[in-house]
Amino acid sequence: MSSVEYENADGIATVRLNRPGSLNGMNSEMMSGLSDAFAAVDADQSVRVVVLTGTGRGFCAGADLAAVRDGDEGAASAETMEAMFNPAMRAIASCPVPTVARVNGVAAGGGFGLAMSCDISIAASSAFFVSTFGPRLGLVPDLGTSYHLAVRAGAARARGIAMLGGRITAEQAVDWGLIWQAVDDDELDAAVDEVTATLKRSSPTAMTRIRSTLAQAARNTLSEQLDLELHHQRDLIPLNLAEGAAAFVEKRDPDFSPTR
Q: How far apart are CA 167 and CA 159, in angstroms?
């Protein structure tokens, strides 16, 4: 059984963490599989959007702590993090199409960071998030968790989340700006389908440039950001605007170029 399953169905790729017995606990095999799955997305020009989710009742419980207890160095070590875990996170961050996290259950430790690594994160109302690193494991938040908390939650909440390790409900996560949406459990698939349909018919080039433009905004002055926006519009106006305007006037969905 593969620890990561990959499927492309009509331009929507699903990357599914598949270690349900450990609530999709991370190990080197899983993280290597994640890197391979996103390499497949990169190579397949037919993919327009990626959904990342978990098998069973959990999204991802972070590192497989049972394996760590049993002395499996592949489950968690600085060397494994450098060689396997961080490259997988970088592959998600640089994905050439939009990414959607379908958070179907607990997202703990590195799984919390994984949920926040996607462009859009949608959680079932029964899902919850917890930063287990500090009070329970004596570690700093990793896999980008510290970055996303600091950027999204603000200093006070980021420190409270990271240092106290309390459980955060899906609704709290929305209120605190950590994820996009929380929905009733039986509405999760419909909510994800609605979002992926919107992203699928969008311009991949525009979507990934929106991601990078917003990421740079916190570091830029207003003048620098205006220049960056202009830089992207020089490419996107001739590529997309005529079709977008025509579709708006004609009351139809735009048929954008699949160019990434």
A: 14
Other beta carbons within 10 angstroms of residue 198's beta carbon come to 13
Alpha carbon 187 to chain centroid distance? Answer: 20
Kindly state the average pLDDT of the residues 80-102. 96
Q: Which of 213, 205, 240, 216 is nearest to 229 (CA)?
A: 213
- The answer to whether the CB of 105 falls within 8 A of the CB of 54 is yes
User: Do residues 179 and 103 touch, judged by C-beta distance below 8 A?
Assistant: yes
In the chain, the N- to C-terminal Cα span, in Å, equals: 33
**Quick one: 41 and 122 in the same domain?**
yes
Convert the pLDDT of each residue in 154-174 to its tens digit: 999 999 999 999 999 999 999
Same-domain pairing of 65 and 113: yes
**Structural domain of 130:** 4-200
Q: Rounded to 10 degrees, what is the CA torsion of 185, 146, 141, 107?
A: 10
